[in-house]
Automatic annotation (TrEMBL):
The keyword Flavoprotein applies. The keyword Cell membrane does not apply. This is FAD-dependent oxidoreductase. Transmembrane segments: none annotated. Pfam families: Pyr_redox_2, Reductase_C. It comes from Terrabacter lapilli.
Length: 436
């Protein structure tokens, strides 16, 4: 098939999933024209460093960029930045999309990698009370959330100068920022509405260990406490009002209370949409049987054979990368199910958390190492089968278990706690049908 005859692909969204998708398309031999549209002015870049090293000045802007202009040109990908697809229509044969600039892009194949936006903490009432209008993006000086490079650029100088920082949300992003602020010398308070940190993502034992580690470093943690609104004084955020009626003063308020998947275009197309995202199958195919979706905007079957079945929402670079590769294979006519072992990581100061598998639903957990010394691993089991590892500053344990899960192997739970025996010596195959 010639370039002129090849199918035209429109990829909406320019994050990790988009880059993985177009890379995989070319690796699969697809030669059709590709247009990749992102609403940020920057070329596609890595997001994980934004809440970690980038805030501390350890990464510059160029180091975050995935690829230069030459890479896109070599792959035959037209990169459109600073524009957004606002309307799209299609049928089984193709369709067209319209951007904010008025450009019309015709396509044969459509991929939605639209990502998500951060949830906002209400601040309008406070701003109006202070007779201070909110800026168009909904944020005030001193009030921050980190999702984009522009967000991080705005936060970094204020964080370095702050004396009192309140972080609303005890998830990965919130704790990474809290650790960075504490290392910079600020007094830090983390407000979390749940009764434990990282409650949706990790086991209760790891939540407890992370809480204790942050407290040892001087961070104040308020669990089972919600934030009602941002307090505004003289045109900038000055603190947070809590559900218990108290107010915490702050120079800087950072909100990290989760994300909202960007599903507007999917809804416009009449696709099946869940509150957690655009619903896809194991091949990243949406309900219309033609459009694919991947990354933070999508929700689909659990890709992990040993995990709890049903629709699963995962937010990680690994998930976006692997699901997007399945989306590319579907578009290229070589469908391959997304069935990878989930893995994650989080650097919170000198705490290096690495996780593989999914601990949810486990009925036994083995502690390996010294929790108080912040060098340990938690191995989770369900019905006698190893389903996850959560490691803190023990990368060898993490890597061994991740590879074991990928190869359909397990580790005897009774033997796993003995740190004098390397885990790799304990690997045994399993014939369990949930294994891969």
């Amino acid at each position: 098939m010639t370039q002129e005859q090849a199918a035209r692909t429109l990829v909406v969204g320019a994050g990790q999933a988009a880059i993985s998708l177009v890379t995989a398309l070319r690796e699969l031999g697809d030669t059709g024209p590709v247009v990749l549209v992102g609403d940020e002015p920057e070329p596609p870049y890595e997001r994980p460093p934004l809440s970690k090293g980038y805030l501390r000045g350890e990464h510059d802007r160029p180091s975050l960029v995935f690829h230069d202009a030459g890479w896109f040109a070599d792959l035959g990908v037209e990169l459109v930045t600073g524009d957004a697809v606002v309307a799209v229509e299609r049928d089984r044969a193709g369709g067209s999309a319209t951007t904010t600039s008025g450009r019309c892009i015709e396509f044969d194949r459509l991929a939605l990698t639209t990502g998500a936006t951060n949830r906002l903490l209400p601040a309008t009432g406070a701003a109006e009370a202070a007779d201070t209008p909110l800026p168009p993006d909904g944020w005030l000086p001193g009030l921050h959330s980190v999702r984009t490079l522009a967000d991080a650029d705005r936060l970094a100088p204020e964080l370095r100068a702050a004396r009192e920082v309140v972080v609303v949300g005890g998830g990965f992003i919130g704790l990474e920022i809290a650790a960075g602020a504490r290392a910079l010398g600020a007094d830090v308070t983390v407000v979390e509405v749940a009764d434990r940190l990282l409650d949706r993502a990790v086991s209760p034992a790891l939540s407890d260990a992370v809480r204790e580690a942050h407290e040892r470093r001087g961070t104040r943690l308020l669990l089972h406490t919600g934030a009602v609104r941002v307090v505004v004084d003289d045109g900038r955020a000055a603190g947070v009002e809590l559900t218990n009626g108290q107010t915490i003063a702050a120079d800087v308020v950072v909100v990290g209370i989760g994300v909202v998947p960007r599903t507007e275009l999917a809804a416009q197309l009449g696709l099946l949409v869940d509150p957690r995202g655009v619903v896809v199958d194991a091949y990243a195919l949406t309900s219309d049987g033609a459009t694919v979706a991947a990354g933070d905007c999508a929700v689909g079957p659990n890709p992990f054979g040993r995990g709890v079945p049903g629709l699963t929402r995962l937010e990680s670079v690994a998930h976006a990368t692997d699901q997007a590769r399945s989306a590319a294979a579907t578009l290229a006519g070589h469908p391959a199910a997304y069935d990878r072992v989930p893995w994650f990581w989080s650097d919170q100061g000198d705490l290096h958390l690495q996780m593989a598998g999914l601990p949810q639903g486990a009925d036994r957990q083995v502690v390996r190492g010294d929790v108080a010394a912040e060098r340990f691993s938690l191995l989770s089991y369900r019905d006698g089968l190893l389903v996850a590892v959560e490691s803190v500053n023990v990368p060898s344990d993490y890597l061994t278990v991740k590879r074991a899960l990928e190869k359909g192997m397990t580790i005897d739970a009774d033997a796993a706690a003995d740190v004098t025996v390397p885990l790799k010596r304990l690997l045994t195959p399993t014939a369990d049908p949930r294994s891969r």
